[in-house]
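# nightly structure sweep
# worker-07 picked up a monomer target from the shared queue
# config: single-sequence mode, recycle default, output format = structure tokens
# input follows
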Amino acid sequence: MTKDEYELPIKFLEEFEQKNQLDWEALVDSNLKGKPTEGLYERATSEGFTLKPIYGRNQTTLSNSPSVQTDTISEIRKQLHKNRKQASWNIGQNYYVGDVQAVNKDLLEDLNGGVNSISLVVRPLDDYPDSEGVEITSLSDVNLLFDGVDLRGKELHLSASHFSLPVAAIFASYFEQKKNELGAVRGSFGANPIGDLAKTGEPFRSLLSELEHSALLASWMSANMPTMRSLLVDTSVFYEGGISETQDLAFSISIALEYMRAMTQNGLSLEKALKQISFKIPIGTNVFHTIAKLRALRIMWARIVENCGAPANLNPALLDASISKRVLSGRDVSVNMLRASCACFSAVAGGADTVTLFPHTQIVSAPSSSDRRIIRNIQNVLKHESFIANVADPAGGSFYVENLTDILAQKSWEIFQLIESKGGFSKQLLAGSIYEMVEKAWKVRKNNLDTRRDSVTGVSSFPDLYENLEKTKVVVEKKLKSQSKTGLGSNDLALDGGFDDLFRAAGQGAHLSVLAKFLGERAKASKPIQARRLSEDFERLRDNSDVWLNKKKRRPTGLIIRLGKPLDYSTRVVFAQNYMAVGGIETQEIDISNGDVEKAINGQGIDFIIICSSDRVYEEILEVSVKFLRSMTQKMIVLASKPSKQLEPLKALGLDKFIYSGDKILDTLQDIAEEIGFNGT
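# output follows
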């Protein structure tokens, strides 16, 4: 990077003695007082490798050997940071609910507040797979949507599920009539046939037909609107299904390659085809994994481009990093602001061109003006106060990040090669192999969630049982119901040509139901991927607790029986309180020596018993305590302790459940709920 003339080179490293890996390990060992370094943090990840406590130069290939990766990273720094005093990223905002006039108002407010990238979800004509989206059915709707909106210098990204082709025709006709915006707006028309198929399982005619239609769109856009891209690689549905970061990278590259093949096979040159592809990468809240993921994607895409016979720097990957719904919670929703902040920082540090975040209330309600302001200001603060974008590849040089980038790229490439060796992504998706990969990945992830090895703050850990949560999802009625599931309308206009016919018809005001005739009939092709959120099973317990509260005017309640002195029981009492709150269960406390213990146990507001104390006290008086309690009640008795051979005989005396750190908390809470009739009915 060329330095400004007035800046002097910084040589602070010359003041320090050079240290190697052994020196760092010796320093750590001196503070561990004999404990092994390996015991600090050796944990297997969902990606299939283990994180280490210390990384050095010799543990990364990016730092000390010439390679495609090294050259690519250097090129990335040049491309993204030609002038670091002007370096930046696009602030994205999602629009997915409301009528066009309401969204127009939101657009004007957000654009005035710093947003310069619009992600617009268009409601599917047949409401399949769902009715989420802004209802846009003709050119007149787009005119209302963008009334008073200056799109010059802005980005527009569309998502219209299987209807991307006719929707693109409607928006293209709008830009045609707005000559001053025709070449001034950037973005993507969002054709994503493979991602759409994974979500619905029902393409129009076939996946091959939709790929050919997308290639038609790409050819038209390349000739008429070169600043807009036609095909979008969006793996959100797979990511929400539960796949790992390495699988997501492999899926992204494999899908992009399928799109590139479809375009070149339909007559588009390689150079033009590359300029028609953009990426929407779902990201989570693991800062370093996200940084490494985005860097690894650029490495892999450069390698694909190079292997296709083009220079690696011909078309650097255009990345829209978007926080995934899977990491958002529907409880303690304020924590979603922190999740968005982590995602935004890591996306920018990883070199994203655009960052798009969901409002913190995304799961429970339609976003208000305040919600949208908060989420865009997270980016405004990072952009204008942290100056993070002024640093070229800020994570570069960190041995940990470089190692992580290298590992993610290598493991993702192996998965990509496996998919290609079996015929490519489309073939594997239609055969059900991709579905099986997603389900297998979710099974591993769910086990980690159920045991709180991976916890969700505010839901499976540190829950706020008394939060005031109002769920107010807005439902917008359709102006015109489709005549059938395929959404086909009248026969006023016959469309049997190419995209030019769609474009002309859209310009004449044709309704989306008429334009959709071009697509044909839906056909069942594959099993749809199930979208999931990490916290949804725990939230279901909390929802059932709310039902119980509304019905009985109290929450399900467990009575904590304390054995011994406060020093004996305090730790496990706090543990039990938080454990039960995860399931929406309140707790009360009483000492076993209290004369009113029987009255408390058999009170109308108590549903089961929890015994808490230390292991020492358990050894001394647990058996007699269980017998004592069982003589008073037949209610469920839960012990705060890990089961052992010594405690196993107590089950015969009436001990029903154990709760402890590392257990399958979700299963245990569901069992308790079933036992006490706490099932939401």
